[in-house]
Write a structure and sequence with these properties.
Elements (H helix, E strand, L loop, with lengths): L11 E11 L1 H7 L2 H17 L6 E5 L4 E6 L5 H25 L5 H5 L4 E16 L2 E5 L1 H8 L10 E5 H6 L3 H7 L5 E7 L2 E9 L1 H4 L16 E11 L3 H9 L11 E6 L10 E6 L5 E8 L3 E8 L4 E11 L2 E11 L2 H10 L1 H24 L20
Parallel strand pairs: 4-6
Antiparallel strand pairs: 1-3, 1-4, 2-3, 4-5, 6-8, 7-8, 9-15, 10-11, 11-12, 12-13, 13-14, 14-15
Helix pairs in contact: 1-2, 2-3
Length: 386
């Protein structure tokens, strides 16, 4: 195996760093593929956003990210801080998702079982350019990928090759102050025998705080200022699926943006945000209550000036009663201004929206189709693993 100080013509020394989501294959194989995809995408984005040491993304490999950084190797302390940051953000997201989610499909219920491991290596690599695409190339890239398959008896760990430790400063202090004992090992691969150290990440789980209980509602006494209703000719679940599909709102909301913005999650959950109208407010969804025959949820302006409560009630297997009720904080002047200058216009917009929603749902039934975006509201099908 090449020494860390040796380079081939055209190659440069670089850190190769791979966070890999464990349990991905089983997760995707055994659960609903669309929701699994959204969950993995969000987790990969969180790992990229947690980059604190100037890493570059070479490619995303399904369940993993191939990071690199040319130049001097990071210190042991820098690597440990980077790993702790990514690990913590990864699991904090899963914790919050478990407490804030509303979907009970297999993917959403088992997301908390996902784990993460890290492989960090250092050596000479080069960059291939094919048209506009750049790709890491070299023996050390292969070595890093081989190390993902090892005999370590742990689901969550961080692995550092001897090459990286030899090129980095401060590893003696890391071994003394690490959150768990550092183990030494080596593995035989087709590229040769590779020495490395590794440590468990499990102790870090005990340091993570529980998700905060956030109150998105309007504080104080509220006044009902508007109410509209409609009968939607579709099953309750279908109506909810369409309304919960935030990007699809551009298809049926009047004056909506062509592309709905400020969506912070692809799956509905407490705290999900969106913006549908140009120069309009960012709305926050919360207070979901789902039963077999009634679904209610609230969408409140981020500045908490106005809230809209949607109630969907099953009339029969093919019809749903929709009631939309708007509230604002109790204020005589603001209530009067709303009723005089805004209520009529907003009412008209709501009724256009409900008509558009009904026509779309009817078109699905006529063509014997279902809306592709689905939320599993029943708790009897899937339960989170104990």
């Amino acid at each position: 195996m090449a020494n860390a100080s040796q380079t081939d013509a055209g190659s440069q020394q670089a850190l190769i760093f791979i966070p890999d989501i464990s349990g991905f294959t089983k997760f995707v194989s055994d659960t609903e593929i669309n929701h699994a995809r959204h969950i993995i995408e969000e987790l990969l984005e969180i790992l990229m956003d947690a980059n604190r040491i100037g890493l570059q993304v070479s490619e995303i490999e399904g369940d993993a990210i191939l990071f690199y950084r040319f130049g001097q190797a990071p210190t042991g302390e820098e690597m440990m801080h980077q790993i702790k940051e990514m690990f913590s953000k990864f699991h904090l997201h899963l914790k919050r998702y478990s407490t804030h989610r509303i979907c009970n499909c297999g993917a959403c219920c088992t997301a908390s079982n996902l784990a993460i491991k890290f492989v960090a290596h250092y050596g000479p690599i080069t960059m291939n350019t094919i048209k506009q695409y750049k790709k890491l190339f070299g023996k050390e890239v292969i070595v890093a990928h081989r190390l993902l398959k090892n005999d370590i008896d742990s689901h969550e760990y961080s692995l550092f090759t001897d090459n990286l430790k030899e090129a980095s400063a401060g590893w003696h202090a890391v071994e003394q102050n690490a959150w768990s004992p550092i183990q030494q090992a080596e593995q035989e691969y087709d590229s040769g025998r590779i020495g490395f150290s590794y440590l468990s990440l499990n102790p870090l789980l005990n340091e993570l705080p529980e998700p905060a209980v956030e109150d998105y509602s309007i504080k104080g006494v509220k006044a009902k200022v508007i109410e509209t209703s409609a009968v939607i000719e579709a099953p309750l679940e279908e109506v909810f699926n369409v309304i919960a599909d935030l990007p699809w709102r551009s298809k049926w909301l009047p004056d909506a943006l062509e592309i709905i913005t400020d969506i912070n999650s692809n799956l509905p959950q407490t705290g999900q945000t969106h913006k549908c109208i140009d120069k309009g407010p960012i709305m926050v969804s919360h207070d979901y209550h789902l039963s077999d025959d009634v679904i209610t949820f609230t969408e409140t302006m981020a500045d908490k000036k106005f809230a809209n409560v949607i109630k969907l009630s099953r009339l029969d297997k093919n019809r749903t009663q929709l009631v939309s009720t708007g509230f604002m904080k109790k204020n005589f002047l603001m209530e009067t201004m709303f009723r005089l200058f805004m209520k009529s216009k907003i009412e008209k917009a709501y009724y256009v929206a409900w008509n558009n929603l009904n026509e779309y749902c009817k078109s699905l039934r006529k063509s014997n189709q279902e809306h592709p975006y689905k939320i599993q509201t029943s708790k009897s099908v899937h339960q989170p693993a104990a």
